[in-house]
Amino acid sequence: MKFVEEVRARMLEKSWREHARNAWDVSPALAVFLPQRLNSSTVLEREISRLVRANPEQVSHLPRALDFFLTKEALESDAPELPHVLTWARCSPVRALSLLCPRTLPTHPLTAQYAVRVLSSYPAEAVLFYIPQLVQATRYGIGSFRKVQYYQCSICFVQV
Asked: How far apart (Å, rounded) are the C-alpha atoms in residues 147 and 88?
């Protein structure tokens, strides 16, 4: 019985990887949204993450693809494809703030630069509600957070 279950699990994993590759061949955007639509399988998410990291330029216009590109493993190992994040499409302010918090992902100078760029692209009125989170982000000591402090000061002066 156990052997049969293991074979089925391996076949299922193989089929999820194949589905992910087929979706990527049809449309990388389709592949990025596939795990969300299918209530995600970890095998499917890992395969989509691998495809996104291998071809970031094909999905850098999709903020949702950032979730597959920025993984804990990629940030901790300082993966060579990480500079692509600087050209990624802007995400929501909430997502940008989550990149500054080490609870969700390990902090990295490139993700901090991306987060500051995203927050700078929104009008000051939109970001004003997130000042407490920005202040909280300065507690975590990374060199790029000086930009966060500068950004906080610029918002304050815009509002005066």
From this structure: 19
DSSP designation for 59: T
Cα(106)–Cα(151) distance, rounded to whole angstroms?
Answer: 21
- Residue 85: count other Cβ atoms within 10 Å of its Cβ: 22
Q: Is 2 left (phi over 0), alpha (psi -120 to 50) or beta?
A: alpha
pTM of the model: 0.79
Report the distance separating Cα 103 and Cα 126, nearest Å. 24
Tell me the helices (H) and strands (E) count for the chain, helix number first. Answer: 10, 0
Report whether 106 contacts 76 (CB < 8 A).
yes
Query: Which residue has 């304050």 as its token pair?
Result: 156
- Could you read off the pLDDT of 96-115 as tens digits, one per residue? 988 888 888 888 889 988 98
C-alpha radius of gyration, the chain, whole number = 19
Amino acid at position 2, single letter: K
Q: Which helix (H) or strand (E) holds 124?
A: helix 124-127
Handedness of CA 11, 12, 16, 17 (dihedral sign): negative
Burial class (CB in 10 A: 0-12, 13-18, 19+), 13: middle
